[in-house]
Design brief:
With about 800 residues, this protein is of the alpha+beta class. The protein has six domains: about 70 residues, 2-Layer Sandwich (Phenylalanyl-tRNA Synthetase, Chain B, domain 1); about 110 residues, OB fold (Dihydrolipoamide Acetyltransferase, E2P); about 190 residues, Phenylalanyl-tRNA Synthetase, Chain B, domain 3 (3-Layer(bba) Sandwich), CATH 3.50.40; about 70 residues, Phenylalanyl-tRNA Synthetase, Chain B, domain 1 (2-Layer Sandwich); about 210 residues, BirA Bifunctional Protein, domain 2; about 90 residues, 2-Layer Sandwich (Alpha-Beta Plaits), CATH 3.30.70. The strands form ten sheets. Strands 26-29-30-34-33-32-31 form a seven-stranded mixed β-sheet, with helices on both faces. A five-stranded antiparallel β-sheet has the order 5-4-3-6-9, with no helix packed on it. A five-stranded mixed β-sheet has the order 11-14-17-18-19. A hairpin with a 3-residue loop joins strand 18 and strand 19. Helix 4 crosses helix 5 and helix 18 crosses helix 19. The mean pLDDT is about 90.
C-alpha cells in the first residue's frame, strides 16, 4: 500500500518528518517497508508561464521557438517540440537549474542553433500522468511567474506500507490516517463520505438479483450526462504517487475512491448492460468472459460472476468485463459497490492467475457498510469532475442470507489489562486509544464496554484483541519483560527443546548459518528431486488456500527450502554457502492431522573455509566435509552412530550414505537420515555446483541421546598404541571395518581410527589398504604384552572374517 504523505496530510497532519512518522507507525504495528519520493526532487525553478508567440524553428520541422511570459521584464525563449505549443496558452515551465524526477538538471542549451532557456513540460515529465502527446495546458487565469508548486502537486514523500491480512481497513488512505491519529494524537479530519449528494430509496433504470451468499451486499447508483475525459492534474498526481496509472476521469475516480476508502468499485456503461438487468450468481460450466486486460477466461462454479441478458459481464471482485466497460462515448454510468466473500475471491484470483488491486482488498474481508461509504465519495466526485447527474435512489440488495449489520460489544476489564500485559494502563488512557481507533466506548462497573466498528468486525472479537489494540498504541516498547501469572509455571525448556538448541548451537559454532524456510513447497519439487512415484516424500498434503502456486503443498522435506536459499545466495554472488534449518515437516498419517516430525538439514557448497595467505585455494565442500559437520553434531549430542552406503535418488551415486544411530536403551540401529553430495543434474536445476548435504530426523536422534553425562576419572595408567594395515575388497566400507575392530577389541580397546588409505599395484586391483591406529588401555592397571596380543589376535581374526589380510 503506497500512501502519499500529501494525501495523508489532508486527513491527518502530524508535526513529524517522514522518517519519524514511519518509526511511529512501525512501533504501533504498521510496517513501513520504505520511504520513497515521488515527483521532482525540488520545486525550485518550476513556474507558470504564458506563451506569447510560437514560431517555426528555422532548421527543424518538428520544433517551435516560443516566447514566454514568466513574470519578468523580458520574455524567455524556449524551444519546444510539442504539437500543441501555440500562442495564448498557459503552460508549466522548468527553468535552467530545475531537476526532473529522474535527476536530470536542466541547463541553458542550443537546439539546432537556437538558444532554449528551459523546458515546457508535459505531465509525464514531472510524474503527473502518462500522457506523452503534448505539453500541459494550465488554467488561463493563472499569473505568469507563479511557482508551479502553488498550482500542481509537484512532489511528495510516499510511505510504502506492508499491511497485514487482518487489517484491510488500512488499505485505504483514510484508514491509515485513523492509525496516524491514534499513534500521534494529531487531529483526524471528518470522514470523506460524510457528505453524500446521492439519496436512498428505490432506483429506477436497473434491476439486480443476487442469487449467491458469496455476495453479502450489492449497492449501485446511476449517473447520466457523464462527460468522459482526462482527470484533473491533482487527481492524476495522487494516483501516480499511489502507484496507479490514470486512464479517464470515471475510471480514475473509482481507483481514487478505492485508495481513499479501501472499498473497490466498478463502473459499467449502462447502455451496454443487456436487458437493463444484472444477476449475481455462481459461475457455470461453459461460462466465458473477456476481462478488461483483453484475456478470454473460462469460469467455473466456484467463481462468482455478474451477468446481464447476454451472459457474464464481470468477474466479481476481481476484474470487470470488456463488453460493458466505460469508453469515450459513454454518457450513462452504473456505478457498483459490492461486498464479496473474501476466501472465494482469493481462490478465484489464484486459479486464474489474475490478481488486481480490488481482489487484494476483497480477499481480506471487507465490511458491507463500506459499500455505501465508497459510493458517497464517488458520487460527489462524479458530479464535480464529470458533470454527471445522479439519479434519485440507491440500489441496495443483499444476498439470500442477508448480511451481518450487528456491532459486537466487548467488556474490557480493568484488571485484565495488567494481567495480560504485565503493566498498568489507566482506564482513561484505554478509552482514549480505543476512541481514536474508531471504537465506541462507554464506562462499566469494572472497566469499559467497547463497541467494535464495522471495519474491525473480523479482526477484534474478544477482550484480548482490545488489550492488544491498547498496548500497541500506548507503546509495546514500554512494556516490561515479565512472565505470565500462572500457578506452577517455570521458565525453562524441556529436555527435547534443550537438545534442539544444542544441535542448532553446535552447527552455528561450526560456521553454518541458520535459515528459516517456508512451511510450504512447490508442487513440482518432487519431480525436480527425481523422486520415484512411490516415494513417501511425494505424499504432500495440498493447502486449501495457498498464498501462491509455489506454496501449494505442505512441505515433506527441508531440502527444497535449503536449495532455494543456496541458489539465491549463489546467484547474488555469495559462492560459499554453509546453512542449516531446523523445523517440522508434514507427512500424511491415518489420523485427521498429519505427522510433524522435527527435521534438521544442512547444506554446504563452495569452499569449506576462507582462503588465507598459506592456503589460497581452500578445499571445496564434498561428502567428507558434510560428514565432518555431521560427526561434530552427533558426537556433541553423545549419540552412537555410523553411516553405511545409501541410494537417495537426488544424491550422487557412490557419494551418498544413510545415517544410523543406536537407541539409548539398546536394541537395533535405526536409520535417522541421509548424507551425501547432490546429484549433478539436480544441482544444475538449482544453479549450484558441487553441493553436500545431510538430513536427520531430529526427534529420533534426540530419543537416542543417553542420559546425563557421568564423570569418569581419566586413568593414569599408560595406553599401548599399535598400528596395523589390512587389505580388503574396495567395496567394504571403512565404517564396517572400524565397527568390527571395536567389537573384537572389547573393553580394553580404548580407541581405533583409520589414518591412511592406499590403493595401487602393491595391493592389487579392486583392493584397498586401510592403516588402523589402535589404543589399548585399562582404568585399573598397566596392560601386559600378553593381554594386548590376545586382543590384537582377536581383531586380526575378525578382520579375516571380512576377507581382510594383514600387510607386513
Amino acid at each position: 500500500m503506497k500512501v502519499p504523505l500529501s494525501w495523508l496530510h489532508e486527513h491527518c497532519h502530524p508535526d513529524l518528518s517522514a522518517p519519524e512518522l514511519a518509526r511511529r507507525l512501525a512501533l504501533t504495528g504498521t510496517e513501513v517497508e520504505r520511504i520513497a519520493h515521488h515527483g521532482v526532487p525540488s520545486p525550485d525553478n518550476f513556474v507558470v508561464a504564458k506563451v506569447l508567440a510560437a514560431e517555426q524553428h528555422p532548421d527543424a520541422d518538428r520544433l517551435r521557438v516560443t516566447q514566454l511570459d514568466v513574470g519578468e521584464d523580458e520574455p524567455l525563449q524556449v524551444v519546444c517540440g510539442a504539437p500543441n505549443a501555440r500562442a495564448g496558452i498557459t503552460v508549466a515551465l522548468a527553468r535552467p537549474g530545475a531537476r526532473l524526477p529522474d535527476g536530470t538538471k536542466l541547463k541553458k542549451a542550443k537546439l539546432r542553433g537556437v538558444v532554449s532557456n528551459g523546458m515546457i513540460l508535459g505531465e509525464s515529465e514531472i510524474d503527473l500522468g502518462v500522457d506523452h502527446s503534448g505539453i500541459m495546458e494550465l488554467d488561463g487565469d493563472l499569473i505568469a511567474g507563479t511557482p508551479l508548486a502553488n498550482v500542481l502537486p509537484l512532489e511528495t514523500d510516499v510511505l510504502e506500507l506492508e499491511i497485514t491480512p487482518n487489517r484491510p481497513d488500512c488499505l485505504g488512505v483514510y484508514g491509515v490516517a485513523r492509525e496516524v491519529h491514534a499513534a500521534t494524537g494529531a487531529p483526524l479530519g471528518p470522514a470523506p463520505w460524510e457528505q453524500d449528494p446521492g439519496t436512498a430509496g428505490p432506483l429506477d433504470g436497473i434491476s439486480v438479483t443476487v442469487e449467491t451468499d458469496r455476495c453479502p451486499r450489492f449497492t449501485a447508483r446511476i449517473f447520466e450526462d457523464v462527460r468522459i475525459g482526462p482527470s484533473p492534474e491533482w487527481l492524476k498526481a495522487r494516483l501516480m504517487a499511489a502507484g496507479q496509472r490514470p486512464i479517464s476521469n470515471v475510471v480514475d475516480i473509482t481507483n481514487y475512491v478505492m485508495l481513499l476508502c479501501g472499498q473497490p468499485l466498478h463502473a459499467f456503461d449502462l447502455d451496454r448492460v443487456a436487458g437493463g438487468a444484472l444477476t449475481v450468481r455462481d459461475g457455470r460450466d461453459g461460462d466465458v468472459l473477456e476481462t478488461l486486460d483483453g484475456e478470454t477466461r473460462r469460469l467455473d462454479p466456484d467463481m462468482v460472476v455478474i451477468c446481464d441478458a447476454d451472459g457474464p459481464t464481470s468477474l466479481a471482485g476481481v476484474m470487470g468485463g470488456a463488453r460493458s466497460e466505460v469508453h469515450d462515448g459513454t454518457t450513462r454510468v452504473l456505478l457498483e459497490s459490492a461486498t464479496w466473500d473474501g476466501p472465494n475471491i482469493q481462490r478465484t484470483s489464484t486459479r486464474l492467475g489474475l490478481r488486481s488491486e480490488a481482489s487484494g482488498r476483497f480477499e481480506k474481508g471487507l465490511a458491507p457498510e463500506q459499500t455505501v461509504e465508497a459510493l458517497a465519495v464517488a458520487t460527489r466526485l462524479l458530479v464535480e469532475l464529470c458533470g454527471a447527474t445522479v439519479r434519485e435512489g440507491t440500489l441496495d440488495v443483499a444476498g439470500p442470507s442477508g448480511w451481518d449489520a450487528t456491532h459486537q460489544t466487548i467488556r474490557l476489564r480493568d484488571a485484565r489489562v495488567p494481567a495480560l500485559l504485565g503493566a498498568e494502563i489507566p482506564r482513561a488512557r484505554s478509552a482514549e486509544i480505543l476512541t481514536a481507533l474508531g471504537f465506541g466506548v462507554a464506562d462499566a462497573a469494572d472497566g469499559l464496554d467497547v463497541t467494535v466498528p464495522h471495519f474491525r468486525r473480523n479482526d477484534v472479537t474478544r477482550e484480548a484483541d482490545l488489550i492488544e489494540e491498547v498496548a500497541r498504541i500506548d507503546g509495546v516498547d514500554k512494556l516490561p519483560a515479565t512472565l505470565p501469572l500462572r500457578r506452577g509455571a517455570a521458565g525453562r525448556l524441556t529436555p527435547s527443546q534443550l537438545l534442539r538448541r544444542t544441535a542448532a548451537d553446535t552447527l552455528a559454532g561450526a560456521g553454518l548459518h541458520e535459515v528459516i524456510g517456508w512451511s510450504w513447497s512447490a508442487p513440482d519439487l518432487a519431480d525436480r528431486l527425481r523422486l520415484p512415484a512411490n516415494d513417501p516424500l511425494r505424499g504432500a498434503i495440498a493447502v486449501d488456500n495457498p498464498m501462491s502456486a509455489e506454496h501449494g503443498l505442505l512441505r515433506t522435506t527441508l531440502l527444497g527450502g535449503l536449495l532455494d536459499v543456496a541458489r539465491r545466495n549463489v546467484t547474488h554472488g555469495v559462492a560459499d554457502v554453509a546453512i542449516f534449518e531446523s523445523g517440522a515437516v508434514f507427512l500424511p498419517s491415518d489420523d485427521e492431522l498429519p505427522r510433524e516430525p522435527h527435521m534438521l538439514g544442512a547444506l554446504l557448497t563452495g569452499a569449506v573455509r576462507r582462503p588465507t595467505w598459506t592456503e589460497s585455494q581452500p578445499p571445496q565442500a564434498d561428502f567428507f566435509a558434510a560428514k565432518g559437520v555431521l560427526a561434530h553434531l552427533l558426537d556433541t549430542l553423545r549419540v552412537t552412530w555410523r553411516v553405511e552406503p545409501g541410494a537417495e535418488p537426488f544424491l550422487h551415486p557412490g557419494r551418498s550414505a544413510q545415517v544410523l544411530v543406536s537407541p539409548a536403551g539398546g536394541g537395533d540401529e535405526v536409520v535417522v537420515g541421509w548424507l551425501g553430495e547432490l546429484h549433478p543434474s539436480v544441482a544444475a536445476d538449482w544453479d549450484l555446483e558441487r553441493t553436500a548435504l545431510f538430513m536427520l530426523d531430529l526427534d529420533v536422534v534426540i530419543a537416542a541421546v543417553p542420559g546425563p553425562a557421568v564423570y569418569a576419572d581419566y586413568t593414569s595408567f599408560p595406553e599401548v598404541r599399535q598400528d596395523l594395515a589390512v587389505v580388503l575388497d574396495d567395496t567394504v566400507p571403512a565404517a564396517e571395518v572400524v565397527r568390527v575392530v571395536r567389537d573384537a577389541g572389547g573393553p580394553l580397546l580404548a580407541d581405533v581410527e583409520v589414518f591412511d588409505v592406499y590403493r595401487g599395484a602393491q595391493v592389487g586391483d579392486g583392493k584397498v589398504s586401510l592403516a588402523l591406529r589402535l589404543a589399548f588401555r585399562s582404568p585399573e592397571r598397566t596392560l601386559t604384552d600378553e593381554e594386548v596380543a590376545q586382543r590384537r589376535g582377536a581383531i586380526e581374526e575378525a578382520l579375516s572374517g571380512l576377507g581382510g589380510s594383514l600387510r607386513a
